[in-house]
Amino acid sequence: MTKTITGSVDQMLQQIYDHGNINRAVLASARHAVSLESPQAQAVWPIIMAGIETPAMVSETFVPKLSITGEPTYAEIATFAAIRLYAIHQQGIDICVYGGAYGDEAVGKLFFKALAQLRLNENIQVALDRRVKALLATTNVTSVINSLTHLVSILKASQQNQQIDYARLAGDLFHFQFSYESANQVRLTWGRQYYSNVESSQTKGEKN
User: Fold this and answer.
1) Over the stretch 119-158, which tens digit does the pLDDT of each residue have?
2) Number of H helices, E strands in the chain
3) Contact 173, 141 (CB under 8 A)
4) Among 101, 154, 200, 205, which residue's CB has the most CB atoms within a 10 Å radius?
């Protein structure tokens, strides 16, 4: 059975946190590298390359896999972005800031639902809305990832101990890259999460 991008990133993030024995070298590498191709990202490569399946093991188009051309695959781009966002959030914090948002043991929130909660603060709502609207207006994944790095810094400053489902965000970024239609679907999903009533009844199996 092939791994999903969400499942793969979940395992990687748990490996990095390692029950509180945090791999700080990997976190520092991820924070300082703007992309997977950066020399500063090399400490992250072993985790990503061991956690994503090789093309010989999979054949389906929408299955996460490693590059055979040298150019990062959609899975590699999404995975590194999620690890970097987690690294930015985790810096200087002892408790794990990653947590799944679904399932019986859900402890985290979806990224844009956490921003929706933060949006209730009238002091930052205008600035936050401006950044989110800019993100939702583009189908360029590099621009989206750049916007997410700014948003995670804002989230950390206001709710630093909030656990976020970065594995689910990796899945969104993975699918975002396949086509214009896929990007639109992901943007619409994010928009629903951000603009929805955060005080509405909880979705079964998800902690809001």
Assistant:
1) 999 999 999 999 999 999 999 999 999 999 999 999 999 8
2) 9, 0
3) yes
4) 101
CA distance 206 to 208: 6
3-state secondary structure of 131: helix
Q: How many CB atoms lie within 10 A of CB 42?
A: 11
Dihedral of the alpha carbons of 79, 82, 88, 92, in degrees to the nearest 10 = -90
Strands (E), 21-175: none
Q: Which residue type occupies 205?
A: G
Q: How long, in residues, is the chain?
A: 208
CA–CA separation, 24 and 198 (whole Å):
34
Mean pLDDT over the full length of the chain: 87
CA angle 185, 157, 187 (to 5 degrees): 5
Q: How crowded is residue 170: how many other Cβ atoms within 10 Å of its Cβ? A: 30
Nearest one of 160, 151, 23, 176 to 85, comparing CA atoms: 151
Determine the 3-state secondary structure of 109 from DSSP: strand
What is the CA 49 to chain-centroid distance, rounded?
A: 17
Distance of CA 39 to the CA centre of its chain: 21
Using CA atoms, how far apart are residues 89 and 33, in angstroms rounded to an integer?
15
- DSSP, res 177: T
* Token pair for 181: 């239609």
Q: What is the pLDDT of residue 203?
A: 45
Of 31-35, 141-145, 198-202, the poorest mean pLDDT is in 198-202
